[in-house]
Amino acid sequence: METGRIRIWATGLALSATMLVAGGGVILAQDSPASQSASIVAGSCAELGTTTVHSLRDVTPNDPRVGGSFSGQSTAIGVLTSETEVRTRLSTLLDSPHAIVIGDLASPLACGDIGGFTRGIVNNDDIEIGLAEVGDSGHFGIADLEGDGDEVEIDLYIAAPLQ
Prior knowledge:
8 strands; 2 helices; 8-stranded antiparallel sheet; 2 domains; 42% strand; single chain; globular
């Protein structure tokens, strides 16, 4: 009799484990956030222009096929990154209103006005700006703009919901 209860208990435990592994309501893995477009536009986040001044490389997630896989808590926030070199002077982007937009101009996910405290030895050549969530997109982040003569390197770090 005792052996029968142990078998039933063990079978129930094995069946429960199988259901969990098969996706019986428990999140076992997350998909990366979707890649998004990025651009510099004339104007400000409050009054976005329709003119893209510079297209930036899309912000993309770490690719799990290149040595990465999801680990840790399922409530983690994903990160999208991008690095682009733009042929312009940083002072040009600071002298008139410009903004960095993540997503489509018609329905942006995040936006940040280019401005703030600059630092550098020559030509105030480095600035970081915040990119605020637009609506309830769940996307927000930081842009690092580093000027070097007639080029600006723009690194984007965007927090985005996992899918």
